[in-house]
Amino acid sequence: MSKTAVHGRFRLMTALMIFTAFLFIPLQLSAMGGSESAAPAGQSPDTAQPEEQVQNSSEGESAAPVPSSIQTREQALAALRNIGMTVFDEAVEAPDFTLNYLNGDEVSLSDFRGKVVFLNFWATWCGPCRVEMPSMNDLYADLKNEDFVLLAVNQQEEPSVVSDFVDKEGYDFPILMDRNGRTSYQYGVRGIPTTYIIGPDGNVIAGKVGTHIYDGEQYRSLFRQLMQG
């Protein structure tokens, strides 16, 4: 598949992911007992875009919880759908990229072939991103010594701004700098946070636009099942 075709596929899937995020809004508000605030037209309350007012997230809770124990891949995929992720029904290879860590070292996505990759696009100004990041840090701490990696791709900010934010919050997961926005373009990112789950074979398993809280042993069980391929 050509790069143009792959990009078009990701743009299509991102549109579906945004649609799925909007479907989950009534469920989230119901779980919260309702909300008086509204997101700007065309924007989910758990996503943000540059130059726009940042809205608070609904804490990322979905109406359908993840089972405490996941034994099969089918259960894992069902759990991903339950938290509002769009599961890719056909094999789509994740576009490779090379970016710099905050310290300047280069890394490529292909370096992590054989592992489950939690690929998250974010920015320091994004309120919904900040909501989910503590749970992402806990998830990374629990699984980093297994076949799992979390890569948080920052959206075109200055390294000094990102470094100050990460140091203040105490996050340990790897931060990558997408200074020219090329990687975000490859992945069809239209709003943040956007998250993709990539399998050990390098194919995208699922994606989500919007916040989610990845707390609890059930998420460790979910990703361990995905590690089995």
From TrEMBL:
GO terms for cellular component: cell envelope. GO terms for molecular function: antioxidant activity; oxidoreductase activity. Keywords: Cytochrome c-type biogenesis, Disulfide bond, Redox-active center. Pfam families: AhpC-TSA. InterPro entries: AhpC/TSA, Thioredoxin-like_sf, Thioredoxin_CS, Thioredoxin_domain, Thioredoxin_ResA/DsbE_sf. Residues 44-60 have a biased composition (Polar residues). Residues 88-228 form the Thioredoxin domain. It comes from the Bacteria. PANTHER family: THIOL:DISULFIDE INTERCHANGE PROTEIN DSBE. This is ResA-like thiol:disulfide oxidoreductase.
